[in-house]
Design brief:
- The protein is an alpha+beta fold.
- It has a domain of 133 residues: Nucleoside Triphosphate Pyrophosphohydrolase.
- The protein is 28% helix and 23% strand.
- The protein has four helices and seven strands; from the N terminus they run ααββββαβββα.
- Strands 1, 2, 3, 4, 5, 6 and 7 form a seven-stranded mixed sheet that branches.
- Strand 1 and strand 2 form a beta hairpin.
- The termini are far apart.
Length: 203
């Protein structure tokens, strides 16, 4: 079966997790991942893994789909590219970029990731840059329930000058961090996506 071939049946009857509910965004994910040119062999392997996962699971974009599913996130930089806006995640209790699960109303991966970033940052005018920055596949802890692994598609956005941020119910706190002095416990994970976003901005 190819990624654009017949779609396997979903694992539930809830319309919010049906293949039809996520049809547009699944098609967009397949198209965008096929068109994306990864920067290195490791990212190419992840691109192929994501496409294979999408081929196997019609509900790969849904929170209620397989325990491993696609998510979208956005790393937010200031206009100079010198500071990064992060959220202290309610469940993980660690500082991360904004993002989360796609929803049936999302029409593209970028739009879904952008929606999550707006909701979690409180910045209504936030717009994600069009290209994928990087992919990241990571395991989750027990606090995330049946979700065992996220296949994250990461974008970048530049906050409008003077934008005011606010924490959402999913966050303990939202604050700016110097790009060269990221939180110690997530620095190793965040630094590659921050550097890639800065490069995309020409910084």
């Amino acid at each position: 079966m190819t990624a654009t071939g017949p779609r396997p049946p979903t694992r539930g009857t809830d319309p919010g997790t049906s293949p039809a509910a996520y049809g547009l965004i699944r098609d967009d994910a397949i198209a965008r991942l096929h068109a994306w040119h990864p920067p290195d062999p490791a990212q190419e392997r992840l691109r192929q893994d994501y496409l294979a996962h999408l081929a196997r699971h019609a509900d790969a974009m849904a929170r209620g789909g397989p325990p491993a599913h696609l998510t979208g996130s956005v790393i937010v930089l200031d206009p100079a590219g010198e500071h990064v806006l992060l959220t202290l995640h309610q469940k993980a209790r660690r500082w991360f970029q904004f993002g989360g699960h796609f929803e049936p109303g999302d029409r593209s991966m970028r739009q879904g990731a952008e929606r999550e970033a707006r909701e979690e940052s409180g910045i209504d005018g936030l717009v994600a840059l069009p290209e994928i920055v990087m992919l990241d596949r990571h395991d989750l802890g027990a606090a995330f329930g049946r979700c065992q692994q996220h296949l994250d598609v990461r974008y970048a956005a530049v906050a409008p000058p003077g934008a005011m941020h606010a924490a959402s119910p999913e966050s303990v706190e939202v604050r700016w961090w110097p790009a060269d002095h990221l939180p110690e416990d997530t620095r190793a994970e965040l630094l590659p996506v921050v550097r890639a976003a800065q490069a995309m901005m020409g910084r």
